[in-house]
Write a structure and sequence with these properties.
330 residues; 2 domains; 22% helix
Length: 330
């Protein structure tokens, strides 16, 4: 081996040692952050948080959730009850979040991680602020990584991280609402009557809860059902009935009234209206002594409100004869 070759080898070794030393130093620097809590003080104050604000670039206004006397409400929806589980999951994720890996501090690269501020048009970042008086914890959640992790950064700071949490972040104000309305099993229904504003009326009924299908009463002459159990869908409309949005009740002369009567004495009245391509309903209930508490709970939850529901449920509540009968013969 000549001296020139030896010099080249020595130089290469020195460069390799320098690179390894630099990498070690960098890793040591970043490892001081790894495993740290994103918000070390939040867990101790979790139960004191009384306002959560969610901001996105693609929504007209932030969603504001407030805790009033122990009840979480959606301020953007006239203080209708919020889904406490969804709120709790986000707050716990913030309180438990640990840094898995230090990422870029270059603002030009924030967009790649979905971490640009929501006040920037086209941003994918979701800004969550949890506060109580002057105490405030805020974080921008970015893209999901490795299915259970997420990129994050603190507002106003360039440094980004990969954290070990990936909370569900509902998009619209309606998605934060407590969505359960009613869950009345079809087996309880004895009869249901649909009355349209123009007077068209359909009534279905059962003699016994053991009957497999509902009878459609007063079928028009020379018409027949499209299939034997066509009315069962109507009777099951109150089963697992959930809302998609809510607004203060609005009277309408065009409302379709559907009344459900159960074998055990509960009566539920549903008034359905169409607003553009969306379906909205209002609810009220009455009963004898046996179901007084259930009726009271329905009225307490529904009084003064109108609920947007899924189209397939809404369609069952406003059936007309042409919807359940075979086409007229030529």
């Amino acid at each position: 081996m000549n001296s020139k070759t030896l010099k080249i080898i020595v130089a290469a070794v020195l460069i390799l040692v320098a690179v390894l030393a630099l990498m070690e130093k960098r890793d040591q620097g970043s490892s001081t952050e790894n495993g740290k809590m994103l918000f070390p003080e939040l867990k101790a104050q979790l139960n004191d948080i009384d306002t959560v604000t969610i901001s996105r670039a693609d929504t007209a206004e932030p969603v504001v959730l407030g805790n009033a006397s122990g009840r979480w409400l959606v301020s953007n929806r006239d203080d209708y009850p919020a889904d406490v589980v969804k709120i709790r999951n986000v707050l716990v994720a913030m309180a438990d979040a640990k840094i898995v890996e230090v990422k870029t501090a270059n603002p030009d690269l924030h967009d790649r991680l979905g971490l640009t501020s929501p006040d920037v048009e086209g941003s994918k970042g979701v800004l969550i602020s949890a506060s109580n008086g002057d105490v405030k914890f805020s974080v921008i959640f970015g893209n999901v990584a490795q299915s259970s992790y997420r990129y994050a950064r603190l507002p106003g700071e360039p440094q980004t991280w990969l954290i070990d949490q990936n909370p569900d972040l509902p998009k619209s104000a309606g998605d934060w609402l407590l969505n359960e309305l009613l869950d009345i099993d079809q087996a309880r229904i004895q009869q249901a009557t649909i009355t349209h504003a123009d007077g068209e009326t359909i009534r279905i009924s059962k003699e016994s809860s053991d009957d497999s299908s509902f009878v459609v009463n007063d079928i028009p002459a020379e018409r027949e059902l499209s299939y034997a159990s066509v009315a069962n869908g109507i009777a099951g409309a109150l089963n697992d009935l959930t809302l998609e949005d809510v607004r203060p009740d609005q009277a309408s002369d065009d409302a379709v009234t559907t009344v459900f009567d159960t074998f055990d004495g509960l009566s539920v009245t549903v008034k359905s209206v169409k607003d553009g391509d969306k379906s909205w309903i209002s609810l009220s209930a009455s009963s004898g002594e046996e179901n007084a508490e259930e009726a009271s709970m329905i009225n307490e939850r529904a009084s003064g409100w109108q609920f947007r529901i899924a189209d397939y449920k809404a369609n069952l509540l406003v059936r007309r004869w042409d919807d359940i009968l075979k086409a007229k013969p030529e």
